[in-house]
Specification:
The complex is a heterodimer of chains A (184) and B (421).
Chain A: H1 2-15, H2 30-40, E1 48-51, E2 60-65, E3 77-82, E4 93-96, H3 126-138, H4 148-156, H5 158-169, E5 173-174, E6 177-178
Antiparallel strand pairs in A: 1-2, 2-3, 3-4, 5-6
Chain B: H1 6-9, H2 11-17, H3 32-40, E1 42-46, H4 50-61, E2 66-71, H5 95-106, E3 111-116, H6 124-128, E4 132-136, H7 140-153, E5 165-171, E6 174-180, H8 203-207, H9 213-228, H10 239-255, H11 263-270, H12 278-297, E7 306-310, E8 316-320, E9 336-340, H13 346-355, E10 365-367, E11 372-374, H14 379-385, H15 393-396, E12 401-406, E13 414-420
Parallel strand pairs in B: 1-2, 1-4, 2-3, 4-5, 9-13
Antiparallel strand pairs in B: 5-6, 6-7, 7-8, 10-11, 10-12, 12-13
Helix pairs in contact in B: 4-5, 4-12, 9-10, 9-11, 10-11
Classes of the chains: A alpha+beta (184), B alpha/beta (421).
């Protein structure tokens, strides 16, 4: 241990009085720090807003997307975000809190977005996820279905799919499933 | 039993510790003092699994006499092929306790103190008692936790607070051993980019077009459980739960004409079991424990600082010095001490940050571990935290507490420890 201690002492002299980290009291975790930075660097635009049920807990929040164009225009879609302490190694967990008719979102609220799972990388940030989520409403994707029926509808008859979207957003029933009313 | 002469038992170790070699540090004094330093060095082993068993055995046979081990797991039948300190009768018992008792029985004179529980149960006082910490873990999360704890403990005024961390890890035929001197050398967080996140299958593949038995298991785990047993918290150690997933996956496999779903595969997928090979564990554990011996005694130079071992195609090892990341969120910017007036408002404090030469923070957001002090964006959070600006520091934070500050003008974040004047 001799060498290590003398290294430490040398560094101590170099850094002089500037002390090291505090003891006992809990430190801001790496995940919290990264989320603090990510939030600050978000570009939300007018179609998205975030709410924090507990402002002191920035790891859990709700993102609301209100598309101003496309088939889902006029709706208001809420997603819960849960970031764990292993962020950014682990991606955030995102779920839709309403029952909606969408080819890439199932009835339980699971979301099929590549960067939330197989293509997640720690260099990606919350902004990338949010942009991806917004894109799902502008361009629902029939080739990566999570709600098979909705994807089928989109593929076979785009116009009928659009009508189904309108019906579902108004709280109506599509293919025997009643959806939540999500109109703004 | 024949009484074993202790000096004979340790003869070869003492050969190394009682004379200098060509690579020994010139300040090192070989002899009884080194031996007693080794024997009195309290060392902590985190994890008593595949690597942990090897590490405990090696440390005991290297002359360490005061070993502690911490592990939260109990012994499973599938461990017995390589975790050689465990027997069939031990199934269900805590790994730390059984491993400690076995090595104590086998190597006379060594004291092994087990703790059954999570590393997060223990505080800095606990970790402070050790000279060296050796990790044989299977999770990145646990490594990140112990790393940031040890970096946080390193106090410039107290060299004893610097705890070398020796980390071993294996996956199949591959492995790595590294030595981390918290705050002095590259830490686990600096090296986080080197770990590829575990491969995942797209959710839509799982939901609609499974191709492999693993996809069926993932479906049962991720989708069917949620739909049908929403109110039961899933527990991967509960056999009934695993059984349910197994049957659901089997059913799914039939539907899609996919065969090969087995109970064992179900466990593997659900618990994300990493393939373990006994010999790889032995290689890596040997590397970590000989580093522990060298660091504890100074008899030879230690690893600087990363050894990778690749055994999947012949054998290849490569040792290099991983560099510290200047913007590492754990060790890149250690907390600076700042004395503040507790009667100052948060708003006034933020203004003073703009004047500090190293920072000149213009638009900072900041928090403590439990409280968001001020966050400039997104707007709703800004609104929620704005009232804090008028509050006094003394009402928002405790004396000596650490805050973390981010500013869009900087790619790095700042940490300050605020002492009240």
């Amino acid at each position: 241990m001799l060498k290590i201690w003398s290294m430490k002492q040398q560094q101590q002299q170099a850094e002089n009085a500037e002390g090291a980290a505090g003891k006992k009291k809990k430190k801001v975790t790496a995940a919290q720090l990264r989320v603090q930075r990510d939030l600050q660097e978000l570009t939300l635009g007018s179609t998205m807003k975030m709410t924090f049920p507990n402002p002191d807990d920035i790891l859990n929040f709700v993102l609301t997307i209100e598309p101003d164009e496309g088939m889902y225009k006029g709706g208001s879609f809420a997603f819960s975000f849960a970031v764990n302490q292993n962020f950014p190694h682990d991606p955030p967990k995102v779920k839709c809190t309403q029952k909606i008719y969408h080819p890439n979102i199932d009835l339980e609220g699971n979301v099929c977005l590549n960067i939330l799972r197989e293509d997640w990388k720690p260099v990606l940030n919350l902004n990338a996820v949010i942009v991806g989520m917004q894109f799902l409403f502008l361009e629902p994707n029939a080739s990566d279905p999570l709600n098979k029926e909705a994807a089928e509808d989109l593929r076979v008859n785009r116009e009928a799919f659009k009508r189904n979207v309108r019906t579902s957003m108004g709280g109506g029933t599509v293919r025997g499933v009643q959806f939540d009313r999500v109109m703004r | 039993m024949v009484a074993i002469d202790q000096t004979l038992r340790w003869k070869h170790l003492y050969n190394v510790l009682t004379r200098s070699g060509p690579f020994s540090d010139e300040d090192w004094v070989p002899g009884p003092e080194t031996i007693s330093t080794l024997e009195s060095s309290k060392i902590l082993v985190i994890g008593a699994g595949g690597l942990g068993c090897e590490i405990l055995k090696n440390l005991a046979l290297s002359g360490f006499k005061d070993i502690h081990v911490i592990d939260m797991d109990t012994i499973d039948i599938s461990n017995l092929n390589r975790q050689f300190l465990f027997r069939q009768v031990d199934i269900g018992k805590p790994k730390a306790e059984v491993a400690a008792a076995f090595v104590e029985r086998r190597v006379k004179g060594v004291k092994i103190t087990p703790y059954v529980g999570k590393i997060q149960d223990k505080d800095e006082d606990y970790y402070m008692q050790f000279k060296i910490i050796v990790c044989g873990l299977d999770s990145i999360e646990a490594r990140r936790w112990i790393n940031s704890t040890l970096v946080g403990m390193a106090d410039f005024e107290n060299p004893e607070s610097l705890k070398p961390l020796i980390d071993g890890g294996t996956e199949g035929f591959k492995g790595q051993a590294r030595v981390i001197l918290p705050t002095l050398s590259s830490c686990i967080e600096c090296q986080l980019d080197m770990h590829a996140p575990r491969p995942a299958v797209p959710l839509c593949t799982i939901a609609t077009i499974p191709r492999q038995p693993q996809h069926c298991i993932e479906w049962a785990h991720q989708i069917a459980w949620q739909e049908q047993r929403k109110d039961d918290a899933f527990d991967s150690d509960d056999l009934e739960h695993i059984g349910w997933i197994y049957n659901a996956a089997l059913e799914r496999g039939k539907q899609f004409h996919i065969s090969g779903v087995t109970f064992q595969m179900t466990q593997g997928v659900v618990k994300n079991i990493i393939p373990a090979i006994a010999s790889t564990n032995a290689v890596i554990a040997a590397a970590t424990t000989s580093e522990a011996l060298k660091i504890a005694t100074s008899c030879n130079p230690y690893l600087e600082n990363y050894m990778m071992y690749a055994g999947e195609e012949g054998v290849y090892t490569y040792t290099f010095e991983a560099e510290k990341k200047p913007d590492c969120p754990v060790c890149g910017n250690l907390a600076r001490r700042m004395t503040v007036d507790p009667n100052m408002t948060l708003e006034a404090f933020i203004e003073t940050l703009g004047e500090r030469p190293e920072a000149q923070l213009k638009k900072p957001s900041m928090r403590t571990e439990e409280k968001t002090l001020y966050q400039r964006f997104p707007p709703q959070l800004e609104e929620q935290t704005r009232p804090n600006l008028k509050l006094k520091l003394g009402d928002l934070i405790a004396d000596g507490q650490e805050i973390a500050v981010s500013d869009p003008a900087y790619t790095i974040d700042f940490r300050y420890r605020l002492d009240f004047s």
